[in-house]
Amino acid sequence: MITDRLTVSPVVATALRDGRPVVALESTLISHGLPYPDNLAVATASEDAVWAANATPATVAVHGGRLVVGLDSDGLQALATAPPGSVRKASRPSLAAALAGGGWAATTVSATMIAAHAAGIRVFATGGIGGVHRGALGSTGAATAGGPPAVAPTFDISSDLEELGRTPLAVVCAGPKAILDVPATLEYLETRGVPVLAVGQAELPGFFARSAGVAAPDWVPDIAAAAGIVDAHLGLAIGGGILVCVPVPATEALADDVARDAVERAVAEAAGAGIAGPALTPWLLARIAELTGGASVRANRSLIVNDARVAAELAGRLTSR
Ligand code: PSU
Ligand code: MN
Q1: What is the pLDDT of residues 237-262, one digit of tens each?
Q2: pTM above 0.85, yes or no
Q3: Is-contact 129 186, C-beta < 8 A?
Q4: Which residues are 139's β-sheet partners?
Q5: What domains are there in the chain, each with its CATH number?
Q6: Of 47, 89, 163, 177, which residue is the catalytic one?
């Protein structure tokens, strides 16, 4: 079973045994989400932000047939500097192949939730969760002649959403990624019974941008209030995670129109080029980085480190309740 495949670092194991706050961090954003050297800078800064908020970071990845919870700095370096394409992206459906294949694999939100929960961790920070991709539901086409034709659905829906529906963990993010069909992603999360909270604003955070342009299902003024709801949800032990959405820091946020234009263009190009499957999200993030002259990477870096800091505060409040 999963515990036979789990390697928890001594530092993380000790913190958990002593009941001190621990924050899980994922590794796909290192290997597939950001270019080198930004990826290594973000991974290190996220761990530092967790330590600075009096919690222990536990970056998760697959290595040598094991799910490692608590990478050391050599592991972070190895993942960040691996040649593009040489590291697998492990989600729930690809975790077994990643374990059996040996070598390095990076864990997405779904695989990181599985490992973190098995290790006894309750709080996890990422950048933006995956969700319902634009076009996943297809379109019916125009009612009038000359309009856009009907498009078949791709059904591309991230396994992150199913995992949030089944694995009890608080996931701190900056909202669903802006490349997604955000309203459909919220509907999916509601159907799967996942509470979604915005912190400090009524609008759902929009990943690169402060707002996704839609209301959050629920919102709280601060982390203390979020901790109360997270504690109630996890305390029920009815299964399933809870999503805590924190807006990207204002100084690094992309303007709403800049984000929207880059996302729309990148999504259209990806469809035209036939990019699909697990390659789609990394392709879109890289293309948006080009289209925004690197501004999206600065926003992504900033929001990831901020999420790690907020997650550490949340973990601290949970352990002291
Ligand atoms: N947040 C980021 N960058 C990323 C991701 C999150 O800022 O690259 C990763 C996470 O690992 C998430 C994955 O689970 O993107 C979603 O991939 P997909 O859409 O293929 O499920
Ligand atoms: Mn997908």
Answers
A1: 999 999 999 999 999 999 999 999 99
A2: yes
A3: no
A4: 151
A5: 1-121 (3.40.1790.10), 126-139+152-321 (3.40.1790.10)
A6: 177
